[in-house]
Amino acid sequence: MKNKLQIIFISLMLILVFSSCRKWEDYYIHRQAGAWEIQKLEIFDLDSLTHDFNLVLAYDTPGVVELYDSNSDKYNYCYYSFNSGVKYHLFYIIETLCNVKNHCWWLKDNKMRSDFWEVDGGGAERHIFFSVKEINKNKQEWTYFTNGDTYGLSKNKIFITIKEVYTVERKKY
Amino acid sequence: MKKYFLISVFILAVSAVKPQISIYGGYNSLFSNYTTFNTFVDSYNAYQTDMLSKCGHSGFMGGYTAGVTYSAMVFLCDINYNQIFCTRTAKFQDGGSRRMDLKYNYIVTGIGIGKQFEKIGIWAVGYLNFGDIYLNSYYEFQDGSKDIGSTRQLNGCYVGMVAMKFMYGIKTSIKVVKNLNLLIYAGYMAKNSLGWKDDYSHFTLQDLSYGKMLDGRMDEIPTDYKKYWELGGTTYAYRTYTDKWNSTVGCDLGGFNLSIGIKWDIPGTKTE
Question: What are φ and ψ of residue B188, in 5° steps?
Fold first, then answer.
């Protein structure tokens, strides 16, 4: 009895120690991978007097973002598709800078942050960070901030912060 | 490599005696003195002009501990997993705030010498701990939305590795009912890792993101925020390179450690 218990506990300890050796990047990428349907995309600008965000533009179900786990901590394939009427979205920046269409790379190294990136014509990496808020396992809010009116949409031209909020849900297919 | 070494020592120690096996869990706290982080905080507070409330020092951190002990004769072998965390916030006049979530995940293993009496057991213990310190730094707007992207200099997810820190203290077990005990540990956690002044004993907190270095940002947290802001990340890193351990926030988290929990003696494991 005693020997059995000793073996069980030593095994449990070994599992605990070795599981802690797993790279966090692998953990977060595996957890984040999937087909995410964008249920809502809202674009806000910041009022410099009240410090509140004002809604400038909103789209319902504007598109889908597919995140593939390619067993890499950096080179994971991302495919995205937006409805034809949706002109303004974050990936527009990557497309403009890097001359790509509907795809880029992605990675995730932390619960709070996700990184989409691509290489531009000059060989430089262009990274865009999302702040990630987990609502539940299959529903998240991705928020992107930019210091600059990327799309020329801001009503308040004095100020220069735009916030994009993507409410996304993982599809089970 | 150190993990294999520590596990081997632990298993050898366990197999050499006929122990009482116990498992335990409880609340863990650290009254921390985190010198480089506190230096950064002081310089950050001094440089900001539009603060409503200043960012605090590392100070008290709370969390949990869970582990296994083997005790026999006068010896105690112990291995446990711990997590302690705190959030420090600076509020600004525009309604926003700079938030810094600090977390230390670590594994502890070590031995003790003492005695288990009928109702009470007391051991002087010495431990080694290793793990990772995480610091998520982000800006929170008035409406609660969080920006951890590249728009602000200090935003980032920083991580630093603790190679091997020494801990020592007193562990006390007080019998409550048959196999249940109250377990109290009080001790001190060293600030720096063991070893000479080499890279392994002086890791710094780093944002390992591939995109962090764009636009001349620094992937570490400067201890002199005014100098960093005036020089820019690249120049600051270049000019302070020879004094890296004092010019960036490192892993020198340590202080008085107190944990209180419940220990369960597994029936049938004691032979004496």
Answer: -125, 135
Q: Which residues of B touch A20 (CB under 8 A)?
A: 81, 107
Chain B residues with CB under 8 Å of A46 CB are 141
Question: Is pLDDT above 70 for A6?
Answer: no
Answer whether residue B271 shows pLDDT above 50. Answer: no
Whether A37 is covered by a domain: the verdict is yes
Helix ranges (H only) for chain B are 2-15, 35-47, 225-231, 233-239, 244-247
pLDDT bucket at A96, cuts 50 / 70 / 90: confident
What is the rounded CA–CA span in Å between residue A57 and residue A166? 12
**Which tokens sit at B62?**
């709370």
DSSP character at residue B250: B
pLDDT of amino acid A27 = 82
Domain count for chain A: 1
A53–B147 C-beta distance less than 8 A: no
Q: Is A115 part of a structural domain of the chain? A: yes
Chain B, 84 to 113: residues with Cβ < 8 Å from chain A are 94-96, 107
The pLDDT score that the predictor gives to residue B96 is: 92
Count of structural domains, chain B = 1
